[in-house]
Predict the 3D structure of the following.
Amino acid sequence: MNGFRVGEDDFEVDGRPVRLLSGAMHYFRVHEAQWGHRLAMLRAMGLNCVETYVPWNLHEPRPGTYRDVEVLGRFLDAVRDAGLWAIVRPGPYICAEWENGGLPHWLTGAVGARARTRDEEYLGHVGRWFRRVLPQVVGRQRHRGGPVIMVQVENEYGSYGSDGVYVRRLADLLLAEGVEVPLFTSDGPEDHMLTGGSIPGVLATVNFGSGARAGFATLRRHRPTGPLMCMEFWCGWFDHWGAEHVVRDAEDAAAALREILECGASVNLYMAHGGTNFAGWAGANRGGGALHDGELQPDVTSYDYDAPVDEFGRATPKFWAFREVLAEYASAPLPDPPPPPPSLDGPVSAVLSEWVPLDAVLDALGSPEAEYAVPPTFEELDVDRGLVRYAVTVPGPREPYPLSVRGLRDRAVVYVDGARAGVLTEGTPTLLDPVAGHARVELWVESLGRVNYGPRTGEAKGITGGILHERQYLHGVRARALRLDAFDVASAVRAIPSAGAGEGRPGLYRGTVEVHSPGDASLALPGWTRGFVWVNGFNLGRYWSAGPQTTLYVPGPVLRAGANEVWVLELEEGGESVRLA
Ligand code: GLA
């Protein structure tokens, strides 16, 4: 029988049993000019397949407005050209440490807790999105000459909900749009997760970082036959701002990989190559133990993941340890790794001497200001990634009282009568010094990334409760939004007149850096606090002195020989220069 299929015990290609040695690499986290190199690295490690998610919110910024959906097709073509198979996980929810788990903000803002259920309004949007994106996949299935061998339904649905009707409806949508390769679900190796996330007639797989024998034993209780697969073998992990950098020992990970393969199972390394959360697309978790209802833990910009192929595309000790294990299961000798991409030829610095105050940036690129009875959320203002300036008057005369924000997500730099008065967060929502009336209060509120996992996925950003003086709500709030996407209109940024030296004040800093011979680099921002950086109009992502990440990855293809433009949008306290090395 022709094609790829799920057999009684194994996956089969053209009637022959095969083991999938797959690795995750997200096209949206790797510069397109570097895909070929990274895919060749994965082949050289011993993989025969690549897995990618598809982030809906990246591709449908507004309902019915689509952005470069074709990039998925281009990636799948690159996978085929690299001689690899492909597994596609189109969500609609993807988790993935990605803003809102991939769900558009306009959708979760509208449907709230009805997301990821059989709700017709939600499913209507999913259906329209699938009709738009799936042609990229359908024409590239293996039996049609493409690399795609399997497609996932939802993502770890059993870690979230129990609406089997919903999972079935999604599977039917995929089938109706022409997906003919096998479908599958993936879940944690727990009974309730497998019960909640899998559906009859669709292959079930499990996700774990170690303990393959136990994990597969659980899966077998639910599925007595069928190939075994660990769809996410967590060989590394991700970092949160302000927390310790997480690493996983290479030998320990290689031993866990060996255990999976010794079970006769297939595997997908999560991640094989992690890449970068460019342009502020990193998501966030909620701490607080099993309920995931505690403090916000925003994800850093790097998605290096301590993966075998690091953020720069280099082979790590984990790469060589995995290659040794995978070589034993390969059908032919493994190819050598490709030559590494060029690195920047030497360190260079740029003094960012031009400065535009935040207000002027808002004037040039922001939404019009409007007044609302109560502060609108980011969702109500249609802001995905970016910030909102809320302005409110404390009427006077009145005594000095504490000023606080209810439901602040996530962080506000506060000014009282033009002077900086402090930084508020969800956990510390009250200004240190009381405020007397009459006063004009401005709160510059920033989202640090929407929650992508657990019961609070999809929660709103901005001021979701209200602004309080003493216990009195302050009404009549003016709001103005700055979406990060506005910076795609690079010419507008260039046209804003400089107001001289910024001397550390918040705003947009600009300068140029001279590069002799471009190549991969890291960007350091000594003395800067928190914001975003663009090089030649490419948004490298968020920087934050909270660490643990201290430099940002600059893909070589972003740089050019000669002058390179650098913009830094600093939201708290800026430095003087940036350094590329
Ligand atoms: C789960 C999700 C993935 C990712 C990992 C952690 O398994 O399915 O998308 O979030 O956790 O990196």
In short: The chain has a mean pLDDT of 97. The chain has three domains: 4-327, 348-353+485-580, 374-475.
